[in-house]
């Protein structure tokens, strides 16, 4: 495999040489092989049930190609084939009205709104904590160890309780779910911002000192610009984490709406295709949210003259 | 304008805190502390203690006993007054009035002041510096617990919403067998098995990927993408495939821990310099010798980073997977059922166990890291 796909630089006659030396070619190959493995394992995993179905129907000696095609077209497969998932996603996004309870766009928008709210609160909280920690010795020494150990607590385990309890108080809707996202997303932002706000070299801080800059000015003109790349990196992690928080936050609400509810309903009724399509949509959502922050990062760094 | 003013006359945090303590104690001494009509003078111990607290707090500003003895007295008096507040409020649940909250605020500010003083103590021996560095976060944690206890009992928050730490402690002590069974099911079986398989297989995969540059270029972007995905969503699928018992939870843990470990190990294997690799070549070392003597040791900080991330991910994965179906034992099962029965103190006890297990797991890995990467600048200090 290495011989055919990794041509030596001398071998320029090979038309794939340029294609395979970058990242696009290898990534395509890896993705295609994942799809191939998926199809094969779908066929293998669905075989027992398919054979049972043939036996019940009294069919024997089914053609191999038809057999394979049937394993990829079951109603409730153990592992649905990729095209089944894609068809399901198409049916539940494009074919359904957005307001319909069965539309994945409807469910995604609910998850997305609590993700974004939680991310917003979490990021602001993280930045505030970081500013406090950088400027106060006591906060640094007393708070920092707890921020780190707060993440060893499996907060997702508390998620159902937070939601049930807040519902009991009368707070329902977006905020309880967003709180879990907040908890998950404040940590990377706080840690990254502390690192970033401390990243100016001593010589630069000294320069600000010779300008007789106040702490506020040093913060605004030196520390904050230095921390921006760190902020974007940690915001990417925080965004992914807050989506996870929003999805898990939807599990205990009794499966009303949202991607998490979709997962739970699918697992109750054995609708594997529904689970997989919710999963793929969630993955797509995470990918595009992270990519969005990546674009913002590029624009911001370019305007600040920091583009790499 | 305001910024220049701040730079000329720095806000002195200890002074603000000290006068805040005095103000709060004065408010507390002259107003009701409990409904219907109970002043602080009815509890002489508390009154005397708080008076001493105010004096000890403000002594630095007035200019006497500006040494560590004064600081220690402040700390001691703060602890005693916190204890008195906790014991008195347990007799007057839900009756707290303005004066009581003022006294609580005074105690809180005093403990902050004590920590503030503690942070600028100058010590000569590194041991005492370490003890102080451990004591500060510990004091912070304790004061949070005390504040939680005081506020919950003082304001009479219903037990269903938020039980007091003491109630959680009682529940923790009385239901040890159940908690232990849950811990065994979730942590000893699902988490440890999944963690070992996930990290081990990802490590082997990383070495294979590193051997083949094509795979490295192709698999790494995919791995990075997958690390950002909500992998926890595979939990229902795994429960469907592997049944209700712990193997399905272990499978979720394997999938969750695989990609962080893979990505970090591959990044770590690329961490050695060209110069160092050239040195190994001049020693005529082969691939495996270079791997074991140079590249794996250099990769250790990255690998341990992944192991630490995974230690928390593994616990989360196992607990959340239990929401989708489980035998009648396990931490996730207990949490979801006890929430349904409104036994919130049991849930908190389970959370305390989970937090303890997670912190210990993380701590053990951090200790191993210190032993293995003793050469790294972050460990040498």
Distance between the termini of chain A: 35 Å
Biggest protein-protein contact in the assembly: A-B, 71 and 67 residues
CATH architecture of the largest domain in chain B: Orthogonal Bundle
Helix content of chain A: over 70%
Identify the CATH homologous superfamily of the largest domain in chain B: MetI-like
Query: Radius of gyration of chain B over alpha carbons?
Result: 27 Å
The H-and-E topology of chain B, N to C, reads as: HHEEHHHHHHHHHHHHHH
Which structural category do the helix and sheet elements of chain A fall into?
Answer: mainly alpha
Round the mean pLDDT of chain B to the nearest integer and report it. Answer: 81
CATH architecture of the largest domain in chain A: Orthogonal Bundle
GO cellular component, one term (chain A): plasma membrane
Domain ABC transmembrane type-1 (chain A): 104-297
Membrane topology (chain A): Multi-pass membrane protein
Transmembrane segments (chain A): 16-40, 104-133, 153-175, 224-248, 273-296
What can you tell me about this protein's structure?
The complex is a heterodimer of chains A (308) and B (381). Chain A has helices at 2-5, 17-21, 24-57, 64-71, 82-95, 104-135, 137-150, 155-169, 174-197, 202-210, 215-250, 259-269, 272-303. Chain A has 308 residues and is mainly α. Chain A has two domains: 2-79, no CATH class; 104-303, MetI-like fold, CATH 1.10.3720.10. In chain A, helix 6 (104-135) packs across helix 9 and helix 12 (259-269) packs antiparallel against helix 13 (272-303). The longest helix of chain A is centred in the last third of the chain and has 36 residues, at 215-250. Chain A is elongated, with a radius of gyration of 26 Å. Chain B is mostly helical and 381 residues long. Chain B has two domains: 2-157, no CATH class; 172-380, MetI-like fold, CATH 1.10.3720.10. Chain B has helices at residues 2-8, 13-29, 44-62, 68-91, 98-119, 126-155, 165-174, 176-211, 213-227, 235-242, 246-269, 274-282, 287-321, 331-340, 344-372, 377-380; strands at residues 32-34, 38-39. In chain B, strands 1-2 form a two-stranded antiparallel sheet. In chain B, a hairpin with a 3-residue loop joins strand 1 (32-34) and strand 2 (38-39). Chain B starts with a helix and ends with a helix. Classes of the chains: A mainly alpha (308), B mainly alpha (381). The interface between A and B is large, with 71 and 67 residues. Chain A: Its main location: membrane. Chain A: This is Putative aliphatic sulfonates transport permease protein SsuC.
């Amino acid at each position: 495999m290495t011989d055919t796909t990794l041509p030596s630089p001398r071998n320029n006659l090979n038309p794939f040489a340029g294609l395979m030396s970058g990242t696009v070619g290898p990534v395509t190959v890896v993705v295609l092989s994942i799809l191939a493995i998926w199809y094969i394992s779908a066929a293998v995993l669905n075989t027992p049930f398919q054979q049972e179905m043939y036996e019940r129907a009294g069919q024997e000696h089914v053609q191999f190609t038809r057999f394979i095609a049937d394993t990829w077209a079951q109603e409730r497969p153990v592992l649905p084939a990729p095209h089944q998932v894609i068809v399901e996603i198409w049916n539940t996004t494009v074919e359904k009205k957005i307001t319909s309870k069965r539309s994945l766009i409807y469910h995604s928008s609910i998850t997305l709104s609590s993700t974004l709210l939680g991310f917003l609160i979490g990021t602001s909280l993280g930045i505030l904590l970081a500013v406090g920690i950088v400027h106060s010795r006591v906060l640094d020494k007393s708070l920092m160890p707890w921020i780190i150990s707060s993440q060893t607590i499996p907060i997702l385990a508390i998620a159902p309780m937070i939601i049930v309890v807040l519902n009991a108080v009368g707070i329902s809707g977006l905020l309880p779910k967003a709180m879990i996202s907040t908890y998950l997303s404040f940590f990377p932002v706080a840690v990254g911002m502390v690192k970033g706000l401390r990243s100016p070299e001593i010589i630069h801080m000294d320069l600000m000192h010779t300008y007789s800059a106040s702490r506020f000015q040093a913060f605004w003109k030196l520390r904050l610009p230095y921390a921006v790349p760190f902020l974007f990196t940690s915001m990417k992690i925080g965004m992914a984490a807050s989506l996870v928080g929003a999805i898990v936050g939807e599990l205990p609400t009794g499966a009303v709406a949202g991607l998490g509810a979709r997962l739970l309903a699918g697992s109750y009724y054995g609708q594997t295709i529904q689970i997989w399509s919710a999963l793929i949509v969630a993955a797509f959502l995470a990918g595009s949210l992270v990519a969005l922050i990546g674009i913002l990062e590029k624009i911001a760094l370019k305007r600040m003259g920091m583009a790499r | 304008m305001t910024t220049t003013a701040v730079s000329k006359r720095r806000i002195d945090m200890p002074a603000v805190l000290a006068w805040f303590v005095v103000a709060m104690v004065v408010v507390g001494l002259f107003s009701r502390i409990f409904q219907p009509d109970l002043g602080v003078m009815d509890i002489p111990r508390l009154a005397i203690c708080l008076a001493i607290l105010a004096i000890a707090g403000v002594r630095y500003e007035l200019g006497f006993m500006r040494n560590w003895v004064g600081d220690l007295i402040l700390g001691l008096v703060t602890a005693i007054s916190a204890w008195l507040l906790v014991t008195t409020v347990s007799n007057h649940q839900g009756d707290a009035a303005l004066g009581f909250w003022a006294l609580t605020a005074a105690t809180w500010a005093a403990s902050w002041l004590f920590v503030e003083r503690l942070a600028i103590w100058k010590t000569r021996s590194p041991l005492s510096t370490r003890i102080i560095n451990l004591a500060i976060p510990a004091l912070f944690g304790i004061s949070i617990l005390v504040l939680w206890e005081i506020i919950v009992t003082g304001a009479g928050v219903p037990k269903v919403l938020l039980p007091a730490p003491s109630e959680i402690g009682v529940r923790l002590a009385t239901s040890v067998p159940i908690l232990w069974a849950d811990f065994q099911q979730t942590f000893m079986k699902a988490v440890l098995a999944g963690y070992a398989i996930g990290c081990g297989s990802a490590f082997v995969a990383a070495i294979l990927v590193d051997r083949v540059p094509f795979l490295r270029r192709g698999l790494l972007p995919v791995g990075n993408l997958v690390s950002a995905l909500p992998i926890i969503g595979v939990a229902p699928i795994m429960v469907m495939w592997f049944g209700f018992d712990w193997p399905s939870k272990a499978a979720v843990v394997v999938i969750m821990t695989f990609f962080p470990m893979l990505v970090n190990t591959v990044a770590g294997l690329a961490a050695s310099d060209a110069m160092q690799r050239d040195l190994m070549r001049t020693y005529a070392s082969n691939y495996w010798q270079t791997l074991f003597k140079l590249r794996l040791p250099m990769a250790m900080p990255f690998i341990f980073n992944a192991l630490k991330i995974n230690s928390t991910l593994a616990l989360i994965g196992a607990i959340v997977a239990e929401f989708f179906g489980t035998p009648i034992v396990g931490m996730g099962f207990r949490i979801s059922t006890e929430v349904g029965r409104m036994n919130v103190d049991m849930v908190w006890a389970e959370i305390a166990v989970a937090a303890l297990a997670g912190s210990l797991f993380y701590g053990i890995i951090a200790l191993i890291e210190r032993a293995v990467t003793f050469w790294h600048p972050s460990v040498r200090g």
